[in-house]
Specification:
Elements (H helix, E strand, L loop, with lengths): L1 H16 L6 H15 L3 H25 L2 H7 L3 H10 L5
């Protein structure tokens, strides 16, 4: 549970950084290539690839679900943007 919370928090920070989710695939590929150069253990490489792919999918989901204008304003720490975002954000009754 803690790991999921930490990865979700990382994903929400990426919303503020403006990181496009289509960069996660190439990032995972590059990381796996580095590991491949460092080890001959196929099982370790596959485990690393599987883990990074899982994290990548989790981050993508969090970013896609958390990319609201309110969250973006909070992440860039802008009072002006936050007031504007909250002013037009839908609210429950």
């Amino acid at each position: 549970k803690r790991m999921v919370e930490d990865i979700s928090a990382l994903g929400l920070r990426h919303v503020g950084y403006g990181i496009p989710t289509d960069l996660f695939g190439p990032f995972v590929t590059a990381c796996v290539k580095v590991v491949r150069m460092l080890t001959d253990d196929d099982a370790a490489e596959e485990a690393f690839r599987w883990s990074l792919n899982l994290i990548s999918r989790m981050l993508t989901r969090v970013i896609n679900e958390g990319s609201t204008i309110v969250m973006k304003a909070i992440n860039v720490n802008s009072n002006k943007m936050l007031k504007k975002a909250v002013g037009c954000a839908p609210r429950g009754k």
